[in-house]
Amino acid sequence: MSHVRRWLPDSWNPLYSLGAASFYLFWIVAASGLYLFVFFETSIDGAYLSVEHITHEQYYIGLVMRGLHRYASVMMAVTVTVHLIRELVLGRFTGPRWFSWVSGVPLLWLLFASAIGGYWLVWDERAQYVALVTARLFDALPIVVEPMAFGFIDNATVSDRFFTLLIFLHVGIPLSLLLGMFIHIKRINNASIFPPRQYAAWLLACLIVVSLAVPATSLGPADLDAPLRQVEIDWFYMNFYPLIDQLGPTPVWLALLGVTGVLMALPLMVRPKKMPIAAVDPDFCNGCGWCFADCPYEAIYMKPHDYKPNHEQAVVIADSCVGCGICAGACPSATPFKSFNQANSGIDLIGTKNVDLLSMVREDLGAREKKGRILVVGCHHGVDLTRLEEADTTTMTLECIGQLPPSYMDFLCRRESLDAVLLTGCSEGNCFYRLGIDLQEQRLLRLREPHVKFSDVKEKIERLWVGKGGEEALREAIEQIREELRSEMA
Amino acid sequence: MRWRELTIRHWVVILLGSGLIMGAAGMFSHSPSVTVVPEHSTQLKLVVRYSGQRLGECEPLDADALSRLPANMRQPIVCPREKSPLYAELVVDGETRVEATIAPSGIHHDGVIALYRELSVPVGTVQVTMNIRDRADVQEFSHVLHRKLELDADRVVTIHFSDDGFRVTGA
Ligand code: HEM
After folding, report:
1. What is the rounded CA–CA span in Å between residue B97 and residue B157?
2. pLDDT surpassing 50 at residue A1
3. For A130-184, what is each residue's pLDDT tens digit?
4. Which of A429, B9, B24, B38 has a Cα-to-Cα distance from A146 of 20 to 30 A?
């Protein structure tokens, strides 16, 4: 949205890199955790005292490391939760995306278990609270023979070995989380797992500042022989703990399992909007593999060609295809130069063929005065382009901007003497199909095949990635192009 | 995007936004605090860990029955496995605070009987009565604890019940 961009650059918009930020925060937690692990002692008194030592007697290094460990975890709770909400709101959980969605849900459990386990290790009063309430939660399970709470009756019942178990869990669960994170992005091509650099650097700086401003400290040492009065808890992770105390463990279990069940079942409950998927035409597929490289959802693989010897052929995995059409934009056979009637793509969306859209644009252009003609190409997830049509401006709306073969721009500018092309779509870093904008940019800059062939054509192409709210910005850009064309002609 | 391309307006938003988010992180990662045991009260823990009573009587096997068993299983006495549920109640100053019937663990109900409860009780002198009935088919309580306890604000009191009977710690 352009009005947002005026206030915040796209690369700084935290909503556009929530998954990547979650990965990044995980690494910060892991690195600072490794530091803490070196100095941590796995014994009843040692646990508390070693963490106190790290916090207060290491010239702020330990304090910052502990702060990074805590606050990066806290931020991860935020980014992961907002990531979930965002994917939900954008409807990106049905159809072929079910895998990313369903594999995301267990990550929530692992994340919470990791964090709560961390608070337990410190063996301060907060840890005592965690021990008592967690025991209450697990003791409600019908499979429990001896209550977990028997391990925390008084100071004498806790042993050093317990801390060895805790540290094992606090390393093991985050490692399973990491494994789960990699499974989560398994079906995504070129997943963005590192946020834009400036934003990443700034985030780290912010975490260091909070670590110094609000030091992550322990409460008093745990004492099971004395009653716990007031406990400061981390509301990002322990938000449901007071409920276990207030309502009892059963309703909390029902709520936790209920929410998890609904999230898991969501892809089954909501039918995806029927999208035309991609199909390969073996007659026109030359086996170059560019569509295979570009597909954002790994929905294409290559096999030996059905009948052309020594050639390969692309195959679409129907269950994985989201119907973005980026493959059609990557197909070199789509070039209209060879002979317009032969401009069939080797791969294309079923129903809406690229070449038919091109015919329509040609017809439309043909009906307009051959001077100062502008073509605006966009996608169904950005501004409604029909509102921008004018005597000199025609438009073409695709499923994704990555669906546009660069040869179309070469062709229209050279053969149809089109004067300018304006590409638009989602906002930068926020392509609905993840990679459309990046791929098209690389094709324009000739960093990626297929690319724009002619330098003069390249000069005629403008881009403005503004997303849904960018109508005004587009109007301004079109006006500017008009002026330039006018002054060129004069 | 380069650093110097950021405008003043961008910086204002970035600083305000970061301040807000990081402020919330610093704040809600440790406050508000929760009250576990209110003032002028202490915690009373109830710990029951009891082997339980078998429901039926053990019976001797006659020579005939023994000879029909495999050699390694010839025990002269057979005992039924299932144990009786245990009833426990705790009365503090005339008020019943815990009332529970606990089934022995295991699918055959032959395992240990275990119960854990935490409650807040006012400090000072309290009269505590704990009644246990370890056989469901007998009306009377099998074990009774009747005791005046001096409760201290900074000591947790624990009432244990096990095969050795009652034991109170912390008071
Ligand atoms: C530790 C927690 C998580 C991490 C680190 C994580 C990370 C990521 C990353 C890096 C991507 C790829 C983004 C891209 O390249 O555009 C992604 C995609 C996705 N995530 Fe997560 N995620 C996590 C949790 C979740 C949860 C809890 C859910 C929802 C239940 C979820 C749902 C999704 C979905 C549906 C996509 C696919 C988006 C698409 O197909 O366009 N994720 N995640």
Report:
1. 15
2. no
3. 999 999 999 999 888 889 999 999 999 998 999 999 999 999 999 999 999 999 9
4. B38
Rounded to whole angstroms, the maximal C-alpha distance in chain B is 100
- Quick one: which H or E segment has residue B48? strand B41-50
Q: Is A68 on the interface with B (CB under 8 A)?
A: no
ipTM rounded to 2 decimals: 0.89
- Mean pLDDT score, B22-40: 95
What phi and psi values does residue A420 have, to the nearest 5 degrees?
-155, 150
H-run or E-run covering A379: strand A374-379
**Ligand 1 neighbourhood includes A87 CB (under 6 angstroms):** yes
Average pLDDT over residues A448-469: 94
Residue A368 and residue A433 in one domain: yes
- Ligand 1 near A421 CB (within 6 A): no
The pLDDT of residue A299 is above 70: yes
pLDDT tens per residue across span A366-387: 888 888 999 999 999 999 999 9
With 60 as the cut, is the pLDDT of residue B44 above it?
A: yes
Shortest Cα–Cα distance, B53 to chain A (Å): 17
Nearest CB among A12, A227, A231 relative to B42 is that of A227
- B119-122 long-range CB contacts below 8 Å, 24 or more apart? B119/B43, B119/B44, B119/B46, B119/B92, B120/A227, B120/B37, B120/B38, B120/B41, B120/B42, B120/B43, B120/B44, B121/B41, B121/B42, B121/B43, B121/B44, B121/B92, B121/B97, B121/B151, B121/B157, B122/B40, B122/B41, B122/B151
**Residue in this structure with the two tokens 């745990």, named with its chain if needed:** A222
DSSP bridge pairs for B44? B119, B157
Q: Looking at residues A61-73, what average pLDDT do you find?
A: 98
List, as one string, the DSSP characters of A402-438. Answer: GGS-HHHHHHHHHHS---EEEEE-SBTT--TTSSHHH
Say if CB A26 and CB A73 are below 8 A apart: no
pTM of the model: 0.90
Chain A residues touching B29 at Cβ < 8 A: 70-71, 74, 214, 216, 234-236
Please indicate, yes or no, whether residues B2 and B49 belong to a single structural domain of this protein.
Answer: no
Task: Please check whether residues A264 and A341 belong to one and the same domain.
Answer: no
Average pLDDT, chain A: 94
Inter-chain touch A228–B37, beta carbons under 8 Å: yes
Domain shared by A241 and A154, yes or no:
yes
- Spell A348-363 as b/e; 16+ CB within 10 A means b: bbeeebbbebbeebbe
A211 lines ligand 1 (CB under 6 A): no
A334: nearest Cα among A313, A311, A318, A358:
A358
pLDDT of residue A175: 98
Amino acid identity, position A219: L
Of A224, A250, A269, which one is at a domain's C-terminal end?
Answer: A269
pLDDT in the model for residue A3: 60
Q: Which domain holds residue B26?
A: 1-34
**A114 within ligand 1 shell (Cβ under 6 A):** no
- Owning domain of residue A437: 278-489
Which residue's CA is minimally distant from atom 12 of ligand 1?
A: A191
> Is the shortest distance between the CB of A426 and ligand 1 below 6 Å?
no
Interfacial A residues in 307-346 facing B (CB < 8 Å): none
A213 touches chain B (CB under 8 A): yes
- Domain end: A242, A269, A296, which one? A269
Nearest CA to ligand 1 atom 15: A191
Measured in Å, residue A432 CA sits from the centre of ligand 1 at 13
Q: How far apart are CA A153 and CA B46, in angstroms?
A: 9
Average pLDDT of the segment spanning A287-293: 96
